[in-house]
Amino acid sequence: MKDLTERKQKILKAVVDEYIENASPVSSGEIKAKHLKDISSATIRNELSALEEMGYLIQPHTSAGRVPSRKAYGLYVDKFLVDHPLTPKEIQIIEESFNERFDEVQDLVKRTAKVITDVTNYTSVIVLKNIDTVRLREIKLVGLDEFSALLIIITDNGIIRDKVIAYTEALNEKYIAEASMHLNAIFAGKMVGEITSDEKAQKLISAQFKKYKELYENIIKVLKKYATNAESNVYLDGEGKFLEYPDQDIYSTKDFLEAIDSKERIADIINNDNNIEFSVKIGKDESGGIEKCAVVTAKYKLKGKEIGHAGVIGPERMDYSKVMSVLSYIGKTLDEITDGGKHGQERLNSTEQTGKPNQRRTNDRRGSDKDSK
Amino acid sequence: MKDLTERKQKILKAVVDEYIENASPVSSGEIKAKHLKDISSATIRNELSALEEMGYLIQPHTSAGRVPSRKAYGLYVDKFLVDHPLTPKEIQIIEESFNERFDEVQDLVKRTAKVITDVTNYTSVIVLKNIDTVRLREIKLVGLDEFSALLIIITDNGIIRDKVIAYTEALNEKYIAEASMHLNAIFAGKMVGEITSDEKAQKLISAQFKKYKELYENIIKVLKKYATNAESNVYLDGEGKFLEYPDQDIYSTKDFLEAIDSKERIADIINNDNNIEFSVKIGKDESGGIEKCAVVTAKYKLKGKEIGHAGVIGPERMDYSKVMSVLSYIGKTLDEITDGGKHGQERLNSTEQTGKPNQRRTNDRRGSDKDSK
DNA sequence: GTTAGCAGTCAAACCTTTAGAGTGCTAAAT
DNA sequence: ATTTAGCACTCTAAAGGTTTGACTGCTAAC
User: Fold this and answer.
1) How many separate domains does chain B show?
2) Chain A 301-360, residues with CB within 8 Å of chain B CB atoms
């Protein structure tokens, strides 16, 4: 009775599939009718009972069917995912959405979030790698008026951020330009983490470049702020989608909304286990998560460089196969448009050639190359 | 029976006040007990009946109390608002929030939204004036690499936006700098509307500055996009607050969420009647609005310049007096910190002196200087 | 014009009943 | 030793029926 026999697995898969589809407890009769016509419901009941004892199923009350437990979803994601080919319509949505040219990485990120939502019908989320762990390509300083300048931070993966910084003494254009050069020499190529954590070097530089001290310190401050600021790294789309799966009880809806509200929390959840290709986090446990929700994410790569994670937040009973197929397809599409052999590695910045839309058409796709939680 | 006698007004006000407080239909007995002890409930019933006939009240069913109609709210906002002094704690929240220095107008805007939500406990919304109707102070072009540059748009009210633009031919730094100067000469001081709508001038310029044609056209495109793009002008905070007034039925919650989801719609509602100091839009009517919700906004000024509208989206039965008092107080506070006689008009850009927080302390405040819908 | 008093209405809360979906168990069949 | 049929049992959800009490509307007296 301790073994997960093949038949038990089949039945378990049937329960999960059925529950994902209908959101109501699955009965033995239902399984017999739709999945395993050749054994009797009584036998299935025995198996269900065993599976319940093993912790895979939950019975809301004695005379109800069974509902998958978190453990069951975990196993399901590990073993039972099937290839879920995208419909031509879905493919079309994705292709069209990426056919338009983009000038800026952030644009593309937003668009990706939107398309994930459109195709999966779940709330989508993209969390970019913390600027902390990313190399600076360049910083620029552009004077705005005598008391302020725009600091432009360009990271190695092509993301551009900027921020106004102000200073107390009036500075002229020339001074700014000079400072910009000097400071750039210091910052370029370094990781933000390196700069902000290395107090010694900071002091040294700060002393060496006395003239630019205030500016330098301001810049460090801005970088530090970005490094600890989830806000600017988290992109959401389709926050209202949860209204479309209303089988959840009030509690989890509230937890969902609270989670959605706090970008820090989202970032924490998604950055938690971020070294695997696909990550699936089901429900809330010691290490975080969202009550009654599942978070499925995949590595988000642009031009071969990993720039963060992209995925979906939905009910536990989400259509995992579909979501993973969609994420996988989108990943592949992004790969193609950003790394289509057009430019060498050195130009892997934020811009894409203007003019005609990228030509591509691929209908084959891999199913679920997963890794699971 | 056609006149809104003084007593009727009192009763109407009582109904609205009571309903705002308790969210349940108001009965004649309640009014007698809490508001008009010296007339009998029977008399009040007669009056209620008359008020209902006049369209101010609605009876959900025969044996229920009365609920205010939209017409009643309108009258209430017009005539019955009272001065609603802020508590010391509320004042403290506001003051503290603005005491920190800010470098950028957008920062201040976000902070304003946050503080409105914190103090009123409603979802707050700030809609900046469309860039279309605002004069450009300056544009800058900063080369990022040979195929792209960052376009920085600085408007007359100190708002900074930027956008990467890409071009097809490699351009060097010098070229960009030159173009930046030339183009700036063309754009500075003009309103975006002027530039984008005047096709003739566009053609002319485009011919005259042949060298910069592609750039110029790209810039126009970006400006046009901003001009028609609500997204970047709408700031929300406290989107989840609606959970805290759950007396609404499912429908209106849905409409609320849908409205919140679409920044265009928000912008439409708020820009609709934007020439009055305070605007109150109750419920949904021909000209838009949100079912069962009220939108209260005030002009949002910085350094004496009107830069948009700030306000609140909440249930129809919102605490109008309080909201208006809060908006008014915040408006006054902003006036003081941004125009405290520190700099002349010419420096009304985005920066504020660094260092010590602004010193100010004002506890007097005006109540409700309203204008109403 | 106002009020007291009372009949009438209606929603909400609370039961009770019923139906049926689904299980668990037992004993027979394989 | 499994599998299955059969049946008693459980529990929810839906439907129907009462009761309660909060209101109103009306009438007749003040």
Assistant:
1) 3
2) 347, 349-355
